Amino acid sequence: MAWRQISEEEAKQHPLYGVGGWLLVFIILLILGIALNVYSLLASGGSVDVGDMHIEADMGFRSILIVIGIVLNAIVVIFAFTKNPNFPTVALAALWLGVAVSVVGMFIAPTITITGGSEQMNQMIIDQVNASYKSGGIIGVVVAVILAGLISWYLTASKRVNVTYSHRVKG
After folding, report:
1. Which one of 43, 65, 71, 138 is at 20 to 30 Å from 12 when CA atoms are compared?
2. How many angstroms separate the first and last alpha carbons of the chain?
3. What CA–CA distance (Å, rounded) separates 37 from 71?
4. pTM (two decimals)
5. Cα dihedral sign for 85, 87, 90, 92?
6. Which residue in 39, 40, 57 sits closest to 48, CA to CA?
7. What is the pLDDT of residue 83?
8. With contact defined as beta carbons under 8 Å apart, do 107 and 134 qualify?
9. What pLDDT is stored for residue 98 in this prediction?
10. Residue 45 has pLDDT above 70, yes or no
11. Over the stretch 97-130, which tens digit does the pLDDT of each residue have?
12. What is the mean pLDDT of the chain?
């Protein structure tokens, strides 16, 4: 069944108009993503002393990727609540750009500097950090692709999204 254009007034009277249902769940997940990214940014880097070793982590370029995630999610949330007609397109672009950022982030482990301790132990720690970033990154990318696919389907097929942002209904 094809979509039929309706007026903005008709759309506002439609029972599915507005941010609710699964769309609200999506927006809540974006807000939680923003909070998680802000926490990641604030908690990134730092140092710790373990025995005679001093370990420092510098997130470097990875911090830029986190900021990109915060900005993208914030734009999508603002577009959703202001009922901007570009919301579905911007949300789709942000979702898939987020997947691309996840792929890039998988290859960027923090820079680890270790003073004290044996050279062999220091290298083992650095290798372990790099390995855990890659393995965690692979899982993150798989999850991101699955979620982006499901949310993309929802944003294009949802009656609520179409009524609210495109002012159109089935039939």
Report:
1. 71
2. 6
3. 10
4. 0.79
5. negative
6. 57
7. 95
8. yes
9. 87
10. no
11. 988 888 887 777 677 788 887 888 888 888 887 7
12. 87
Q: Side chain identity at 141, as an amino acid letter?
A: V
What is d(CA 91, CA 146) in angstroms, rounded to the nearest whole number? Answer: 15
Residue 63 has pLDDT above 90, yes or no: no
- Residue whose tokens read 């792929």: 103
Angstrom distance (rounded) from CA 62 to CA 68: 10
Mean pLDDT throughout 66-80?
92
Q: Which stretches of 44-86 are DSSP H helices?
A: 61-81
Locate all alpha helices (DSSP H) within the chain, ordered by sequence. 8-13, 21-43, 61-81, 87-106, 119-157, 159-161
Contact predicate 125/111, CB 8 Å: no
Residue 49 token pair: 């002393």
Question: For residue 53, what are its two tokens?
Answer: 């070793």
Kindly give the pairing relationship between strand 168-170 and strand 3-5: antiparallel
For residue 49, which phi and psi values (nearest 5 degrees)? -105, 130
Judged against a pLDDT cut of 90, whether residue 68 lies above it is answered with: no
Q: Give the phi and the psi of residue 118 in degrees, each rounded to 5.
A: -80, 155
Q: Which two tokens stand for residue 77?
A: 């949330």
Please report where in the chains the tokens 């249902």 appear, as a residue. 21
The first and second tokens of residue 105, run together, are 């982030």
CA separation for the pair 103, 37 (Å, rounded): 16
